[in-house]
Amino acid sequence: MTLNDNQLIRYSRNILLSDIDIVGQEKLLSSSAMVIGLGGLGSPVASYLAASGVGRLVISDFDSVHISNLQRQTIFSSKNIGENKAVAAKKRLLEINPQIEIISLSKLSSTEELREWISTVDIVADCTDNLGTRLVINDICFSEKTMLVSGAAIKMDGQLIVIDPTNPDGPCYRCLYNTDEDLEDDSCSDSGVLGPIVGAVGCLQATEILKILLSIGTSSAGKLITIDGRHLEWLKIDLPKNLKCKTCNQKND
Q: In whole angstroms, what separates CA 93 from the centre of its chain?
């Protein structure tokens, strides 16, 4: 595709970057991404992907905006309280960038419907807030060979994992957990969360997604990145592949 004058101005700060230029911006406009969960993580992810010109965004959330969300879910305002998040977020994203396509999903009837949507995009941002859902998204992305950027935050800590299902030697999200045992799955409503920490993880997710779509920089696939907000310490380590993982270990019986 060829950028028009309006797009050249809108995306000028992207185009000025040698890693992106006009060719890269055209690539973004031809790309697609799905953002699952539009809370504290999904707010910056969806906002920056829309503003950056990712041409087709599929956004999904079943919840309604609650006043307690506004401490960290910056895509919403007080006037959105009571509205479905996917519907409210679409309106805001089109205000940011009316030149892209946005599909909002306020309901998914089954795992298979989720699989169908994931199969239509280039990359998925997992911005959900519970382990069970993250594992389902991981398994679908792995089977569909769709890149996955998964974020999480609780209290003053955050984490980011990039999963590349096309790499047979790479780990998946399930490798991080022994799902045969009971796992404590804290929630923000029970434990609290510092708003900027969630935003920081979401911004990193958006950065990784743009890097992947543009094929620039150093890949973070197979890495576990953690943030300690209390002391502002970062850790980036290799995530080992679990040879007993039922999702990504192709040699499992």
A: 15
In DSSP terms, 55 is beta-bridged to: none
3-state secondary structure of 28: helix
User: What's the pLDDT tens digit per position in 33-69?
Assistant: 999 999 999 999 999 999 999 999 999 999 999 999 9
Flag whether 40 is in a domain: yes
Q: Do residues 30 and 1 make contact, with C-beta atoms less than 8 angstroms apart?
A: yes
Instruction: Please check whether residue 2 lies inside any domain of the structure.
Output: no
Q: Tell me the DSSP string of 168-222.
A: TTS--GGGGS-TTS------HHHH-B-HHHHHHHHHHHHHHHHHHHHT-S---BT
The runs of H, that is alpha helices, within the chain are 5-10, 12-15, 21-29, 42-52, 85-96, 111-118, 131-144, 188-191, 195-214
Read off the CATH number of the domain in which 124 is found.
Answer: 3.40.50.720
Residue 17 lies in a domain: no
Single out the catalytic residue among 172, 175, 188, 248: 188
pTM: 0.94
How many domains does the chain fold into? 1
pLDDT digits (tens, 9 = 90+) for 74-126: 999 999 999 999 999 999 999 999 999 999 999 888 999 999 999 999 999 99
- Establish whether 188 is a catalytic residue: yes
Q: Measure the CA–CA gap between 2 and 246, rounded to whole angstroms.
A: 44
CA 59/CA 90 separation, integer angstroms: 8
